[in-house]
Amino acid sequence: APQGSLLYLNALGAAFPRALAPHSTALLHWSPGCPRAPVGWLLPTLYCTPAPAGALPLRATALRVQLLFALRQRALHVLEAGLASELHDALAALRTEWPQLAQELALGRLSPQPGLPEGLRGQLQALLTPDAARASELRAECARGFEGIVRRLWPQLDVVVVGSAHGTERIYCDALRQADCQGLPFYCPFYQVAGALLGVNLWPEEPVPQFLLCPDWAFCEFLPCPTEEEPQTLLLDELWEGREYGLVVTAQPGEYRCCAGEVLKVTGFYKQCPLVEPVCRESQTLNVRGESISEERFCQSLCRALGMWPGARLIDYVCAESSLLGDSSGPCAPHYEVFVELQGLRDLSEGQRYKLDHCLQEDFPVYKSFRFKGSIGPLRLHLVGAGAFIRLREALGSPVPMPRVLREEQLLRLIQSSVIS
């Protein structure tokens, strides 16, 4: 919505005055089949990224081409990504392909790639010019390692803007803050659900995003949590600070009214409109015996177990219910199959693997009860090789956040093929 973009640009410019300089924003976002529609589309001169680069049919190719154009521009002030996972994957490509990227910068030549039609490659290459000095700088910085690489490559960078920083995307934001993007603030400007723009974050410098729900963007109703026997929906002016609500959305006049599957917490009010933080997605739960462990709370238990694995850093994970595997899950009771990618640790002992199951039992009494009765079997933890989750996101073929609880057998088999222990 134009109003949302104007509010975003006003908040961004107030917090980071250099952010609205022409061609000082690089975009990393895969939007197959359509030119980019970034949050700052009202000022297209902000971007140094060619619009067609994001519409390529293959996600990896689109992100790599956009990364190359971002590397050309040393004086970036804003690095923008549609999803935090897109920035994460683009920087993963930088780690493995920086020698070739440096060569392309030096020669001003775009290499042939899968999913890059020759005609479009020619159009994009016409925008490149040889830059030996920038190529040399890229080689020197990458040779030093990748901790804090973003600020070293773009020393004038002020902020990282991401389209989503909650739910499944939070893990990527945390990983980027700890490694590649050390010292940079992250700003998530909008809250969107089911294709509808519902709220805007007017405070770019705050570490935890909270969104102002705008009453005329969509018609929203709210169900108190926990759900009552005969719940009555509430309107914006009936919400209470500190309480949680399920979201019901009617995006536009004439569209269907639907439960969005999102739970929000009201954190306060701004000019009589509620400020909210996303809490969880109700659809992303583990539920082999009715225990209903949400994606967010499972992640908290996993991170607590991770603290008991010295030297390990979590890169990514998914979890699935064993019924999805059929007979190959073994004869034991239904259980969780957890796949994790770690950095700094090559293997886990049986005792370390049990830590996660133990944390779940401590955090969820219902799960502990089912484990004690034997109706839920021991959790199985698998380590997967580097890049397994990047391939999984490619296989999903959708520019939306990856589900953390897998429901599709085909995707589960793909991640199984990358198991190393």
Give a verbal description of the structure:
This is GHDC protein. The protein has 421 residues and is α/β, with parallel strands linked by helices. The protein has three domains: 188 residues, no CATH class; 73 residues, no CATH class; 133 residues, K homology (KH) domain (GMP Synthetase, Chain A, domain 3), CATH 3.30.300. It is 33% helix and 20% strand. It has twelve helices and 16 strands. α3 packs across α5. The longest helix is centred in the first third of the chain and has 24 residues. The chain starts with a helix and ends in a 5-residue tail after the last helix.
Descriptive keywords:
421 residues, alpha/beta, GMP Synthetase, Chain A, domain 3, seven-stranded antiparallel β-sheet, four-stranded parallel β-sheet, acid-amino acid ligase activity
Count structural domains. Answer: 3
Helix content: 25-40%
Overall outline: globular
Secondary structure category = alpha/beta
Number of strands: 16
Q: What's the order of the H and E elements?
A: HEHEHHHHEHEEEEEEEEEEHEEHHEHH
Please tell me how large the radius of gyration is.
23 Å
Give the percentage of residues in beta strands.
15-25%
Side by side, the strands of the main sheet go 5-6-7-11-10-9-8
The averaged pLDDT comes out at 89
The parts where pLDDT drops under 50 for at least 5 residues are: none
Pfam families: GH3, GH3_C, GH3_M
GO molecular function: acid-amino acid ligase activity
Protein name: GHDC protein
SSE map:
Layout: H1 2-15, E1 25-28, H2 59-72, E2 78-81, H3 84-107, H4 118-125, H5 132-143, H6 149-153, E3 159-162, H7 170-178, E4 186-187, E5 190-193, E6 196-200, E7 211-213, E8 219-224, E9 244-250, E10 258-270, E11 273-281, E12 285-286, E13 293-294, H8 295-306, E14 313-321, E15 336-343, H9 350-363, H10 365-373, E16 380-383, H11 388-396, H12 409-416
Parallel strand pairs: 1-2, 2-3, 3-4, 15-16
Antiparallel strand pairs: 5-6, 6-7, 7-11, 8-9, 9-10, 10-11, 12-13, 14-15
Helix pairs in contact: 2-3, 3-5, 8-9, 9-10
